[in-house]
């Protein structure tokens, strides 16, 4: 049984865990996007990570 009242639960925002909370290598991002880890795909993923940071991961692994 929860000791949190309905009022407290409604006032407390949920805590969401996302895939961007951990470090990602360009190889990991390329594979998560369904691409083979070729030099070209790794370079594309590296550029996305440098440009967009966590947003690049969030688009792929929400």
UniProtKB/TrEMBL annotation:
Superkingdom to which the source organism belongs: Bacteria
Positions of the UniProt region annotated as Disordered: 1-41
Protein name per the record: Uncharacterized protein
Source organism (scientific name): Actinoplanes teichomyceticus
């Amino acid at each position: 049984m929860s000791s949190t009242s309905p009022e407290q639960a409604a006032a407390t925002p949920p805590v969401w865990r996302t895939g961007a909370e951990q470090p990602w290598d360009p190889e990991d991002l390329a594979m998560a996007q369904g691409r083979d880890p070729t030099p070209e795909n790794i370079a594309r993923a590296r550029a996305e990570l440098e440009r967009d940071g966590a947003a690049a991961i969030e688009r792929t692994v929400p």
